[in-house]
Q: What sequence folds into this?
């Protein structure tokens, strides 16, 4: 396919859509599907068909519309109206209201900050295109980034644009993406690989799932551009087996792209060749660590190895390998299309662009949002998130999953970027944000995360394997009222030891939830140890003990 | 190579072994096909039994210890058959703070099963997941493949009871 063919295809796809007066988008991402949005879509389709008019209304299943708490969501694109909790029985009213006043009963406030304050780059097509149709993606400038790169840019220029954009790894650590690409590109020729890390293991995070389910082609395009820039010809998408819908849509997307010659040999008539294969993860959190992930693709247990050598030098089967996260790849195509400077114009000085967050827990609007870097936590939780439900009091927000920390109220006005979050003892992480109110006990939370790290430790290095177990035991003693002040001292000592002596990121960050809760909620620990009480009433203390002191 | 591999017979003449063979063939029977193959076995048979592990080890020419090591390292693989119904309780952070532990303890008191176990009559298996990625629906569970969410723990338990009872009446 040439550039011209491609343009024609995009134009005809657009034309087909424009024939319709009304456009109804029904969310078909996992969240809404589990509330039976498929039945809703069927009912609306039937209702539209019963009106018997051709080219009148187009009903489309689309990716994530964001506000997961209101599922199933339906958007009337032509009128800018969003309906929430739409049952199949609402279909008639919705179709009746087309071109007239919207149905008040189920209408969402689309002027709410949840919708107006977002800036969408990675999610620009989420909830807009049908993820199962490549034409839909192409109609919205899909694959033009890849074509521009192949036809008009050298691999070095592509890499320079990414470097100029200031994009940093969205998997959590925030390593500059351009620099990583440069390292792989500079390695001597021969076999190289590109890997997309879609092993989203953080509990409380579902950004990657939504991107893969809503816009799979964007990730493939990003991978292909990366392969061109670094000189790779094979790519692997390492996806969690727990995301069957994402896997299904990716497989379909790969097949479609191959059919159109956008993947495979001689892409768009150029000598560039790139194939993508899917590899299923099997439920091991440690496989999010890049060397463990490589080991898993090779068919082994997911056990990390020391770095250096970094995967960029010696990765999959000993070849130079570029590993980036789903969201990082999702940002690539727009950067190539609009230029690195455009991207660098968004965000803060050191953290450019936007970030997708999954907000969940004790917050009104649970769902998926994309906001510019530098927005404050307060804006995310209270403005976009709509605050804490049932009039309860905000206590902490947990970012970064088991590797992150709990941030208390006093830091809510801090801008969200890699450095600020690290300064208060948490990390950006992949973007999970769990809001907690006063019904959560921080010691219990620390124990929850330690239990997670303990079970997920691969067992290779002693500090992580044994250290997390010891810390877990101490935290358990605290939550059942049998800990002493010596235990607290030992816990603090272990935090430092596990952090500084573990082999990989899992062990090095495992103490973070404990360290951060000790830093901001020490009085809760003391209440458990000295007072034998749990202020939040979560932990079961032996009866009477608390009273006697 | 194909001749000596042909001598290794599948554990039974069950047709599902052909699907497993196809996966191994697609990856050139290379050792790195191990995880993909185990996925196929589990999808076809529901779990990985000793025969399956031995067969896969023989065809991919891997030591059985390695195959067993990989099968037990990853949480997704199970070496035990599942009950007639499965209930996967999400234990991700969002579900945890919204009451997942109450669902687990409720199941334990009603059906006498802890997570990772199956009831004695083989009716219900209770499993836990690290995170289903359905945090917007917290607390979320997967009942026989369908995600159920946004219910208080007590309502959730009633839903599970309902499923089990419906079955009992039908029998």
A:
């Amino acid at each position: 396919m040439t550039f011209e063919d491609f343009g024609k295809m995009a134009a005809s796809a657009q034309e087909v859509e424009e024939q319709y007066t009304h456009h109804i988008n029904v969310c078909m991402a996992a969240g809404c599907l589990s509330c039976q949005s498929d039945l809703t879509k069927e009912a609306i389709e039937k209702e539209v068909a019963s009106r018997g008019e051709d080219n009148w209304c187009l009903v489309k299943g689309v990716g994530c519309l964001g506000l997961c708490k209101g599922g199933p969501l339906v958007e009337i694109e032509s009128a800018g109206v969003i309906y929430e909790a739409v049952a199949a029985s609402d279909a008639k009213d919705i179709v009746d209201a087309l071109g007239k006043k919207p149905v008040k009963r189920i209408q969402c406030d689309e002027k709410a900050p949840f919708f107006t304050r977002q800036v969408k780059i990675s999610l620009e097509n989420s909830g807009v295109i049908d993820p199962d149709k490549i034409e839909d993606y192409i109609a919205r400038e899909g694959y033009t980034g890849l074509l521009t790169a192949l036809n008009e840019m050298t691999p070095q220029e592509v890499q320079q644009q990414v470097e100029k954009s200031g994009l940093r790894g969205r998997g959590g650590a925030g390593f500059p993406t351009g620099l990583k690409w440069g390292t792989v590109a500079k390695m001597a020729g021969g076999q190289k690989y590109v890997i997309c890390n879609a092993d989203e293991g953080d509990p409380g995070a579902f950004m990657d799932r939504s991107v893969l389910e809503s816009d799979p082609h964007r990730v493939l395009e990003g991978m292909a551009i990366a392969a061109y820039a670094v000189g790779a010809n094979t790519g692997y998408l390492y996806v969690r087996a727990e995301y069957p819908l994402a896997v299904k849509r990716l497989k379909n997307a790969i097949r479609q792209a191959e059919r159109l010659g956008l993947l495979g040999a001689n892409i768009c008539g150029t000598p560039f060749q790139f194939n993508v294969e899917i590899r299923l993860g099997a439920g091991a959190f440690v496989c999010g660590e890049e060397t463990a992930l490589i080991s898993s693709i090779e068919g082994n247990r997911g056990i990390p190895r020391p770095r250096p050598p970094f995967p960029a030098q010696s990765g999959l089967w000993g070849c130079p390998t570029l590993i980036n996260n789903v969201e990082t790849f999702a940002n690539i195509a727009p950067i190539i299309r609009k230029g690195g400077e455009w991207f660098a114009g968004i965000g803060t000085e050191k953290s450019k662009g936007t970030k997708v967050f999954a907000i969940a827990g004790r917050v009104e609007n649970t769902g998926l949002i994309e906001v510019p870097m530098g927005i404050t936590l307060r804006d995310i939780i209270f403005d976009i998130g709509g605050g804490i439900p049932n009039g309860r009091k905000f206590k902490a927000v947990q970012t970064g999953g088991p590797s992150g920390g709990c941030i208390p109220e006093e830091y809510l006005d801090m801008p969200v970027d890699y450095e600020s979050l690290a300064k208060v003892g948490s990390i950006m992480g992949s973007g999970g944000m769990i809001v907690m109110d006063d019904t959560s006990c921080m010691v219990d939370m620390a124990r929850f995360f330690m239990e997670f790290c303990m079970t997920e430790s691969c067992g290779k290095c002693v500090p992580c394997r044994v250290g997390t177990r010891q810390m877990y035991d101490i935290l358990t003693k605290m939550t059942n009222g049998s800990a002493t002040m010596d235990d607290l001292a030992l816990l603090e000592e272990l935090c430092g030891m596990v952090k500084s002596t573990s082999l990989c990121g899992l062990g090095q960050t495992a103490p973070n939830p404990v360290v951060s809760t000790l830093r901001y909620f020490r009085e809760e620990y003391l209440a458990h140890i000295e007072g034998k009480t749990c202020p939040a009433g979560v932990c079961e203390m032996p009866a009477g003990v608390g009273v006697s002191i | 190579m194909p001749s000596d591999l042909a001598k290794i017979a599948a554990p039974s003449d069950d047709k599902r072994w052909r699907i497993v063979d196809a996966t191994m063939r697609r990856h050139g029977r290379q050792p790195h096909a191990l995880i993909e193959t185990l996925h196929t076995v589990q999808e076809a048979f529901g779990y990985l039994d000793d025969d399956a592990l031995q067969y896969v080890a023989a065809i991919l020419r891997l030591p059985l210890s390695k195959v067993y090591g990989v099968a037990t390292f990853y949480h997704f693989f199970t070496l035990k058959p599942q009950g007639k119904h499965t209930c996967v309780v999400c234990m991700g952070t969002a579900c945890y703070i919204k009451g997942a532990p109450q669902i687990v303890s409720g199941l334990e008191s009603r059906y006498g099963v802890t997570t990772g176990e199956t009831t004695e009559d083989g009716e219900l298996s209770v499993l836990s997941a690290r995170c289903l990625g359905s945090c917007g629906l917290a607390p979320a569970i997967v009942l026989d493949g369908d995600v159920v969410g946004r219910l208080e723990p007590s309502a959730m338990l009633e839903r599970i009871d309902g499923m089990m009872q419906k079955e009992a009446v039908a029998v």
Observations:
- The longest strand of chain A covers residues 354-361.
- The two ends of chain A are 79 Å apart (CA to CA).
